[in-house]
Design brief:
single chain, 127 residues, mainly alpha, 5 helices, 0% strand
Length: 127
């Protein structure tokens, strides 16, 4: 049975497109490499780059969109890196947003399906 809904990733054609895009671009592996960066004085922009990589995972890190074998490990890695940023290198005023991102990612581990995505506008970055 296929997936047929109204959202931008709610049908088989769209899911096939995401699969092809991930394979051709290596986006998931690029995000993974960024998440493994060291946060230290020798790499002053690492926390910002990690947060950027996490934003891609927040938007696209769903079952069916992200490569299935990478989804849970990448989400766990992103959560641990965000927690590290909170301790080591969070910009003033960013703590609330980082906590929100951690919460979103943890909810993905609890409910990996796309069903909860329909409750919010997928393009709304504040949720």
């Amino acid at each position: 049975m296929g997936a047929w809904e109204t959202g931008p990733w709610d049908n088989d054609t769209a899911l096939d497109w995401f699969d092809g895009m991930m394979e051709k671009t290596g986006l998931a592996k690029y995000v993974e490499g960024t998440l493994y960066q060291e946060i230290n004085n020798d790499n002053p922009g690492a926390a910002d780059e990690i947060r950027a990589a996490v934003s891609v995972l927040v938007l696209l890190g769903h079952l069916g969109l992200w490569p299935i074998d990478d989804l849970e490990p990448h989400i766990n890695l992103a959560i641990s890196r965000l927690e590290e940023i909170l301790v080591k290198d969070s910009a003033p005023g960013s703590e609330e947003q980082i906590q929100a991102e951690i919460s979103i990612l943890k909810s993905r581990l609890e409910n990996p399906s796309l069903s909860h995505v329909k409750k919010v506008k997928w393009w709304h970055f504040d949720e």
